[in-house]
Amino acid sequence: MLQRLTIKNYAIIDHLEVDFSGNLNVITGETGAGKSILLGALSLILGERADPGVLFDKTGKCIIEGLFKVKKSQVAAFFQEHELDLEDQLIIRREVSATGKSRAFVNDTPVNISQLSELSGYLVDLHQQFDTLALGNADFQREVIDALVNKPNELQQYHQLFIQYQQVQKKYKQLHDNRDNANKELDYNRFLLDELSEAGFNANEIEDLETELQTLSHAEEIKNTLNRVYFQLKEDEQPILQQLKQLQSSLQGLAAFHKDMPALSERLLSVYLELQDIAGEVETINDHVQYDAQRIELVNERMALGYRLFKKHAVQTTGELLAIKDELTQKVDNVLNLDEQLASLELEQARLKETLEKAAAIITEQRLEQSAPFEKHVNTLLAQVGMPNARLKVAIIAGELNPYGQDTIDFLFDANKSNQFAPVGKVASGGELSRIMLCIKSLVAQSVALPTLIFDEIDTGISGEAARQVGVILKDLAKSHQIIVITHQPQIAGKADAHYFVYKDAKADKVTTSVRLLTNEERVNKIAQMLSGERPTAAALENAREMLTVH
């Protein structure tokens, strides 16, 4: 409930404070006095966009502050989610500087505008935002019926399931597109893979073949050199190894005569043993090196295949070629795996759709259950507000699954019992829309937790008995909600628990807007003026007193 609204430096308001009652608050005043300016200021603390052009004094800043009394359970989830301190009283403040910079605070804690707008949804229904044009909006019409069903948790569960369903659909489409694109390349990739698999190269094979070809191509030269080395080491008339052995023995024989001789003998022995080992390896290599024309031809063919594949795939090593083979294998396997994934997603889609259809059918049934009593109540209220021949009908048609069920909901209207129903937004006049909206809100308000409802000139296009009945409805609504109404109708003003008068005041060559709470006698005079003009007649005064005593 809005207890106090403080406005500083806004439009033609210098400074004012308004304390509201918890029931029916009526705001009246001359046209242009600034009644709607109050709601414009209020909209700022409800998250509306700030315009620096509204500053009364361009050298200062605009401050709008609202003091709300709230039930903690009503806003606990919001405060917990945004880590804000929750108290019995809630102070929302909005500051706008001349430069256009805007700041918002909840209990002196800074918040952003989106958070402010979200919080306002728990506190106030401002008719400027939720106006009669919304009657023709399909989302609004659905929200009205769902508010009457009053099972938000079921709708939320359905909505979350629908999001999951959409995500599976999106994933399926992406995979399907990927498979189609991959299939275009599959045959070519398979051809490349088969070619590499048939070649069957092992790691470093082409590099090893290059080395082998060098050996095979120079086999005769290699064998001649190895034979000469081996012969000189071991088989010459005076083999090097034999000479070294003799020299080593000679040095060893001098070991007793010089202290350095044993070391020299040992070193010479090491040389002898190393050359003996070399001779053995030379012999082994020599035995294995053979000129093999058939092998040379085979190696050349294998290398030619390798070089051709190098060029085809723009690589230079066997390792790179094998990496391409692995990549092609993965691509081919992925395409084959896509079919399995798609089949799995198809089953998941079918399962989710079946679950959604069952849940949507329940939601449809609940909406249908509420639509008939809703039509009856609205039509009764329409007669009460001066539209006895008007009829509202709710059309609920089940169709494709959507985020809110499977229904298309349309409010149809017939103003003259002609049974020619058409969408309400297309055929109802402005005055009719205002009264329809009031009737709808008076019903919906019983099902929603909004503590405060604000109506800006809901009485457009009506007068007399119809206006009185609008007042009756508002008075009844005020039993369980705080109602703030801007009106030009004395019949409505007479129903108020608190009557505020907006007027212009000239101070220091500046015209400002002020508001005051009227006393009972002042109310009689103002309502009489609304009935008969600036100078009310005795009859108007008497009529005004009657309006104030008959609630």
Give a structural overview:
The structure is a single chain. This protein is α/β, with parallel strands linked by helices and 551 residues long. Among the domains are: 1-123 and 451-518, P-loop containing nucleotide triphosphate hydrolases (Rossmann fold), CATH 3.40.50.300; 178-336, no CATH class. Helices cover 56% and strands 18% of the residues. The chain has 17 helices and 15 strands. It has helices at 35-45, 72-81, 113-120, 138-149, 152-199, 205-217, 219-235, 240-253, 261-288, 293-313, 318-384, 424-427, 430-444, 464-477, 490-493, 520-532, 538-549, and strands spanning 2-10, 13-19, 24-29, 62-69, 89-96, 102-106, 109-111, 124-126, 391-402, 405-414, 422-423, 452-456, 482-486, 498-507, 510-517. The strands form 3 sheets. A 6-stranded antiparallel beta sheet has the order 2-1-4-5-6-7. A 6-stranded mixed beta sheet has the order 8-12-13-3-14-15. Strands 9-10-11 form a 3-stranded antiparallel beta sheet. A hairpin with a 2-residue loop joins strand 1 (2-10) and strand 2 (13-19). Helix 5 (152-199) packs antiparallel against helix 11 (318-384), helix 8 (240-253) packs antiparallel against helix 9 and helix 13 packs parallel to helix 14 (464-477). It is elongated, with a radius of gyration of 48 Å. InterPro entries: DNA_recomb/repair_RecN, P-loop_NTPase, RecF/RecN/SMC_N. One of its GO terms (biological process) is DNA repair. Belongs to the RecN family.
